[in-house]
Every structure is written in structure tokens, then in C-alpha cells.
Design goal:
Layout (H helix, E strand, L loop, with lengths): L1 E3 L4 H11 L8 H9 L3 E6 L3 E8 L2 E9 L8 H15 L4 E7 L3 H9 L3 E6 L9 E7 L9
Parallel strand pairs: 4-5
Antiparallel strand pairs: 1-2, 2-3, 3-4, 5-7, 6-7
Length: 147
């Protein structure tokens, strides 16, 4: 797992392009722009997985997560998301949010397996007309939450 910088933008875009439809894939410029922003954390599994998260004050969000098709169901997504949770926690986040299409069963399964729970819904949020579910998870344990 690599902590990604702007120099990894092309590699991240290649994995993203293999994972999403052309209309949804993010190009190198988008990754480069995001990775240069304060609070954005990028993690790259060079075998074929990427995640971008953003931290603002004590909240974090997943901006994108992708595992290329030939690597799926091998826990790559799980490891990326777990590493992202650890990274945002280290950066001061207490809560993580994300949005996922109601129809995206693999992603919903992954997020549920890591303890994310639905806290909202954005109707017809995606271009295919599907609703976005807003999910949330605490990223610090209760024992250290008071400090
Ligand atoms: C969602 C995605 C990142 C999952 O990555 P992955 O590496 O295949 O997931 P993992 O192997 O780590 O799976 C972990 C758990 O998630 C759940 N899961 C993953 N894929 C699943 C599927 N196709 N159906 C049901 N549950 C699934 C399971 O609980 C799985 O645990 P298990 O394999 O022990 O049953 C991948 O499918 C992907 O890149 N999809 C396209 C892009 C995308 O939708 N990104 C998310 C946008 S919000």
C-alpha cells in the first residue's frame, strides 16, 4: 500500500478507468488536482486498487474507491478502506461519511462489512436515476473519543 502523491495520479487514473465506465472514470488531471488539495489522502495498491479520502476538521469522506475487475473479491477493497480509516483517524477525523448507489451491491456489502450504517438518502442522485445512500461510521473507538 502506497501513500499516493501527485506523481501517482496516472497510475491511479489507470486503475480507476479499468474499474468504472468511461463516463464515471476519473482522469489523471482529476487525481492530480485532488491529491494536491489540503486534507486529501490517497492510497494506492499498485496491483490495482485506489482510494481517495478527504478530511475536514473532525469529519472525513470517501471521495472514490475502486478495485480493478480482475482483483475483486480478494479483500483488496477491504484493505484499502481499512487503511483509509486508519489514515483519516491519524489526521484527526472522528467520523467518516460516504455515498453509494443503492444499486451498487458489491460496494454496499463492503461498507456494511466495515461497520458503515445508513444515515441518509439522496433521491435520484446518480445519472442512472438511482438513489445515493449516505453512510457513516465512527473512526475512533469510544475509549478515546472524549479527549
Ligand atoms: C466495491 C469494490 C471496491 C469492492 O472491492 P473488492 O476488493 O472486490 O472487495 P473485497 O474483496 O475487499 O470484499 C470485502 C467484502 O465486501 C463485500 N463484497 C464485495 N464484493 C461483493 C459482491 N460482489 N457482492 C456482495 N458482497 C460483496 C463482501 O462482504 C466481501 O467480503 P467476502 O468476500 O469475505 O464475502 C469493487 O467491487 C469495485 O471497485 N467496484 C466498482 C467501483 C465502485 O463501485 N466503487 C465504490 C463506489 S461507492
Amino acid at each position: 500500500m502506497i501513500r499516493a502523491g501527485v506523481t501517482h495520479a496516472a497510475a491511479m487514473a489507470a486503475i480507476h478507468g479499468a474499474s468504472f465506465s468511461p463516463a464515471e472514470a476519473w482522469g489523471r488531471d482529476v487525481f492530480a488536482l485532488q491529491l494536491a488539495l489540503p486534507g486529501v489522502i490517497g492510497l494506492l495498491d499498485p496491483a490495482g486498487g485506489v482510494v481517495l479520502a478527504r478530511v475536514a476538521a473532525d469529519e472525513a469522506e470517501i471521495l472514490t474507491l475502486a478495485v480493478q475487475p480482475d482483483l475483486r473479491r480478494q479483500r483488496v477493497g477491504h484493505r484499502l478502506l481499512a487503511a483509509a480509516l486508519a489514515a483519516v483517524r491519524a489526521a484527526g477525523a472522528r467520523t467518516m461519511f460516504l455515498e453509494v448507489s443503492e444499486t451498487n451491491r458489491p460496494a454496499r456489502g463492503l461498507y456494511e462489512s466495515l461497520g458503515f450504517a445508513q444515515v441518509g438518502r439522496r433521491r435520484r442522485y446518480y445519472s442512472d436515476g438511482s438513489d445515493a445512500l449516505v453512510l457513516r461510521r465512527t473512526v475512533i473507538c469510544a475509549a478515546t473519543a472524549g479527549g
